[in-house]
Structure formats: structure tokens, C-alpha cells
Amino acid sequence: QVQLIESGGGLVQAGGSLRLSCAASGRTFSTLTMGWFRQAPGKEREFVGAISWKGYMTYYTDFVKGRFTISRDNAKNTVYLQMNSLKPEDTAVYYCAADKDSCSAYGCFSRENTYEYWGQGTQATVSS
Question: β-strands 78-83, 3-7: how paired?
């Protein structure tokens, strides 16, 4: 079993930055594939980005490329989502997800059903 706790959400103006964190426990973190998803009001949850278990591979959806960066610190059992140049349309609940199986392609990283474990989410609100 893996427990995930997100933090770092909040209210920021357009153009600003937020750094989300996701702390994991319950399994060797360095063996987990980690992903970030988000769900805006009235919309389905969507893929934001993901990172392989060693951090060698990162994938992002097109609308965050160049603005968001995922990283992980396996010594701290934590994955991060650095969000820069935020836009009002980035307003959403952001979820951290994890799976014990490895991925090797975007299709695997970006699918919700790839991930067995999910956090409770953290709200990020971007004002115009």
C-alpha cells in the first residue's frame, strides 16, 4: 500500500508560480512511477505530467510544456510539480498518483488506469 499526500496548492495571480509536493509512504519510493493529474470544475480529470522511477524520463501534456517541471527526490520520498507562468485555465485540483510498475512510453504514463495509488488532491487557483 502507498499513501500520497499533496501540498503546496493555493491562490496565485496569473503569471505567478506554485510548487506542489507529493510525499509518499508505505513502499520504496524509488521504485514508483509518479504522475500528476488535475481536474478543473465541471471537467474530467486530465494528465499533466509524469516521471519515471529513477527520474530519467519525464513526460508532459502539451498545454504545460515549457511551464511545468516535474522532479523527484528519492531520498525525501517526494515528487514535485513546479508550475510557472500560471494561467487562469490552470485552476484545478491537482492529484498525485503512483504505481509500482514501470512505464516506458507516453501512453503508459498518461493513462489514469496506469496508477494504482492516488492522493487526495490540492487546490491551485489562478486569478486573472
Answer: unpaired
